Every structure is written in C-alpha cells, then in structure tokens.
Amino acid sequence: MGQSALSIAVIGGDGIGPEVTAEALKVLRAALPDVELTTREFSLGAQHYLETGEILSDETMADIAKHDAIVLGAVGGDPSDKRLAGGIIERGLLLKLRFAFDHAVNLRPTKLHPAVKSPLEHPGDIDFVVVREGTEGPYVGNGGVLKQGTGSEIANELSVNTAVGVERVVRKAFEIAAQRRNKLTLVHKKNVLVHAGALWQRITDAVAAEYPQVEVDYLHVDAATIFFVTDPARFDVIVTDNLFGDILTDLAGAVGGGIGLAASANLNVDGTYPSMYEPVHGSAPDIAGTGKADPSAAILSIALLAEHQGFPEAAQRIRNAVDTEVTDRTGSRTTTEIGDAVVALLAEQ
Ligand code: IPM
Ligand code: MN
C-alpha cells in the first residue's frame, strides 16, 4: 500500500517537457484523490543553462533527493547550438541524476495498442518490457582522448560492468518476468565483448536457478534487432546493458507504434534515492507551445510512478484510461485535451 502523502520533484525541462509533465501530474492527482500530493518545480534544462549557467548544482541535487520521486519531462535544446555541444546537458543533467541517484534499472515497456498502427505489416501481439541497466556500461564516462586533433588521435570509452550492477538489474528482470509471462531474454554481444558478456551470462544463469518457472534465452544484440522487426511478439522481458538497452528501446518505441506512447522508469532499487519517471521522447522544440505534443508517454510514465510508489490499482486505472482515450481519439486533440480526456475517463471507472 502506498503512502498517504507523496512529494514529487518536477523537472519539466525544455521544449514540450513542461507541457506533457503538467498533464501527467493532473492525471496523477485525479488517480490518487486520497493522497496528499506535493510538487516542487525545478527549473533545469538547456534553456535554464543558457540563461543562468547552471546545469545541476550540488545544492539542487540535495533538494531533489529529499522527494519521494522525480518526474522529468524532457531536456535538451537545439542540437546545432554550439553552446550545448559535447552532450553537456545529457551528461551534466540527465545522466548525472541517473548515476547520482543510483537508477540501476531503466524500465521501458512496449505494448502495441490495438488502435495504433505499427510500421510493421504483421506486428503480432507486441507486449514486452526492456529492463535496461542504468548506471554502468560505456555511459560512465570512463575514457579519454590522446593526441586530439592529430592524425593519430586516440579516443577511448571504457564499458564498466560490475557484478553488483549486473546482478541487481538481472534480479529485477527475473522478478518482473515472474509476474508476467515467465520469459526472459538476455541480450548482449558475448561473442565479441567476451569479458562483460561472460559476467552477464554467468549472473543470469545464477539468478535463473532461483526462478525455475522462468524460461531463459540469449540473443546477440544484432540478432535481437532482427527479431524486433520480424517477430517482436516473441519477447516478454529483455534484460540488457545500458547502451544496448538505449538502442533497443528506440527500436521498441518505433515498432510499438511510436515514441508518443513510450514510457520509462529509472528505478533506484534499494530506496536510497528517489526514482525518476520520464517519457522516452525528447524535448521536440519544433512543436513546443503548439499544443501538438502527445502527453500519453508522460502519463504512462506517471502510471509507472504510481505502481512503484505502491498504488498498482491506480496505475492500472491510468493505463486503462490512456488505452480508452487512444482508442476513442478522433481527429487531432491538443495536449491539454488529451490530459482532460484521460482525467474524465478516470472518473468514469
Ligand atoms: C534515453 C536517451 C539518453 C540515453 C540520452 C539523452 C543521454 O537517449 O533516455 O534513452 O542515452 O540514455
Ligand atoms: Mn535513448
């Protein structure tokens, strides 16, 4: 059972981020009428950085850490703006939050809605979840450059894989599989990345022994991309490292009917810091302020928040309401109209 009060740090971010986040919070309030929800907005993102020079200070981090959960819209500005080059916002804000708050598990479900068209001609019944490692791999920033700008430049990016990091994400994946269709696929590239691959396989085998009911298989990441397109319905739970998971979840979003419905949770598995919920899509500055942004992915991310904060029934009601809204949607609805429609559907359940 969830708490009677929830405090949420809100990072709307850039572009459409604040717009979709506002709808998601509206839906959460409607879904949890008996919970005292308090929100605090944090002004962060590319825009904030360009205006103030702050990306994410230690003081702001400490303030965010005091909350039960974080809701993030999207961060990122104009990719051609040289002041934002080098992934300064991605690394300094988004990844800093994921790493500092130990978001070990990046959960990204994909479910093809019957009313949504997949680009695949025969998509089948797509319903899987990618459990992506969130704090390690080549994302850690362990690397460097030598002889920069010369013809003999050397650039290294080391992929870090720890037994602790791998085990906690693999465990979570098994837990999830046991609550779903009891099928788990480890995706890696162990024929080439032999050291990391062996660690992932060994830990998967060890945890598998505790879950005899879960059928386990393995795919190289390149082969997995083929099945994502030819037979995505074969997947139930996929567990993989940070970079493979990043790539696969964009493909998952595409085959699952578009990034407009792709939700995600960055989970801190031991409760030491708040988990963070964000749609997979970006800040889409081209449509910001037009009311064209679809808040469904942000709303489905809020459903993940509700679920992980101990309100699984409310989470299911939010998902049902989104399902119905997507089915009923005729013509084009604005961002707020979609949020209002989901709220109205919640009231009917
Ligand atoms: C994602 C994004 C991020 C990632 C970027 C923006 C750092 O692509 O959330 O999938 O690579 O994890
Ligand atoms: Mn990505």
Automatic annotation (TrEMBL):
Zinc-finger keyword on record: no
Superkingdom as given in the UniProt entry: Bacteria
Swiss-Prot/TrEMBL keywords: Manganese, Metal-binding, NAD, Oxidoreductase
A Pfam family per the record: Iso_dh
Domain called Isopropylmalate dehydrogenase-like: residue spans: 7-342
SUPFAM superfamilies: Isocitrate/Isopropylmalate dehydrogenase-like
The protein, known as: 3-isopropylmalate dehydrogenase
